[in-house]
Amino acid sequence: MVDHAQFFHQVPDDVLADMLPLAKKVAVAIGLEDGQYNLLQNNGPMAHQVVPHVHFHIIPKPSPEEGLKIGWPQKQVTPEDLKKTLGRIKEKL
Amino acid sequence: MVDHAQFFHQVPDDVLADMLPLAKKVAVAIGLEDGQYNLLQNNGPMAHQVVPHVHFHIIPKPSPEEGLKIGWPQKQVTPEDLKKTLGRIKEKL
What we know:
Two copies of one chain form a homodimer.
Chain A: H1 13-30, E1 37-43, E2 57-60, E3 69-71, H2 79-92
Antiparallel strand pairs in A: 1-2
InterPro entries (chains A, B): Histidine_triad_CS, Histidine_triad_HIT, HIT-like, HIT-like_sf
Pfam family, one (chains A, B): HIT
Domain HIT (chains A, B): 1-68
């Protein structure tokens, strides 16, 4: 059987269950036991997905100048906003 | 039993196996079925890890200005470099 999924949330649970133990093997084989690396999985072209199938990047960060740089603009939200968002998520879980 | 791990590669496989199916439930509950989101897991303070235990960020990308911005400086490498790196990784797998 060949599975294909463009997006993370389309992958069957039994396939997802195998992915991180495999990624761990690769991280150790690359020699990342000292830490300083990122796991990144992108969904959708706006969110930096270039190849349209689910894959994880394991990105070593040997120095501040190398590896993954991130920016994460923060929004101002009120406690009420957060409470509403939490309620919406809880309803669906 | 309480497990604690600062780094991804320290997490036992049976715990790792549960993480992505759970993340998928959360992604769907947040309403990300249309795509445009990132999964990010950081290891080590230099690699943007702020809280010293393993956790995944699920980051919606509703517009180019919001959500995760990434930079990923590229290095010039020769085919021989790549071959050596592949050999080193394969030895350990």
